[in-house]
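Protocol step 4 of 6: record predicted structures for both targets in the notebook before any analysis. Target 1:
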Amino acid sequence: MTGGGIAAIIAAVALLVLVLFIGLVLVNASKTLGEINKSLSVVTRDVDLISHEAEDIMANANDLLKDVNGKVATIDPLFQAIADLSESTSDLNNATRNLAGKVTSTGKSKNTGKVATAVSVGKSAVDMYRNRKEKKTQSK
């Protein structure tokens, strides 16, 4: 064998080793790509399920929000009535205090003491009524 023949054999063996190495790499790459495809299909299916569940949750949240808004609109007049009642009670208290002040300051009548006592008792009754209403309102 000549030097050129030995060089050709070495080149052929090297080429054969290179082809075998590339073949193994391609087989392993093919297996890896197959696993990646399987994983992607699983992930895609799971994301679709999660997406559908999220849509259902959003729909339920929208329904709940509509329900709450409707109920709030229903009780708004109640709060307005309570505010009006509170204002009326406050006005009544102010009027009672003014009347008591006028009665006690005049002092010209014989019955001033009796009237002042009656006004004081009336004021106390109004205050007790207001406190009772406030407690009932707070307990609801």
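Target 2:
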Amino acid sequence: MPSSNQANPAHNPNATKNASDLEAKRLERTSVLPGWDAEKVAQTHVAIVGSGGLGSPLLLGLVASGIGRITLYEHDTIELHNLNRQILYSRPDVGQPKAETAKKKLQALGDTTIDLAGTFEPNTHIDADIMIDASDNFRTRYLIADASLDMPCVWGSVLQYGGQVGVFPPGHSLRDLYPEPPSNPPSNAIGVLGPVAHVIGSMMAVETLKLALDLGQPAQLSVYDALSATTKQYRLR
């Protein structure tokens, strides 16, 4: 019969060591990258709004890379039409809350601490190192822009066969790029190619990790066009 320590990993002094050894082994292909600092990444706290088409690949990329803590703002439930692009979920998840489902699946991947924060409301106080806007409507986007002026903010959007990724330094926001909300029709009216959302979400994860490590140059505005297979870079005035 096992001892109480063996039966309960929380009281096993080797449990934490074994878990950290497992995580180090999982991340060994990342840890050999030039300029990579696993400890810095593990100490980084990001706030993310949205776990849908952009948020799914973004969250997977960050947890897979060993990000330390995520505060996730999400209040939607999973619908069948989400599944062409929201790769965190599958058909058995339809009808379930996105946030709880995402947390369960992400914790099966890595050791990231994930806090669920519900809806992103006006005057929300953000306690994080980096803000990430993976939302899907401009009302929320401008709330995020106004609430995150004292920290870097990674922003992405996707529509049909293309998308955009931007990184706003402290003191700047989406309002510098779009002072007024663009008049784009909603994605449910003109569509989104799922893999394009995956490209943009993954680019957002890369920019977030670069910020965490102070590695390379952050994108100011990257515009991706899948049909021409091009990514153009723009500098913001």
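Step 5 preliminary note on target 2. DSSP finds ten helices and eight strands in the chain. Residues 1-10 have pLDDT under 50 and may be disordered.
Proceed to step 6 after PI sign-off.
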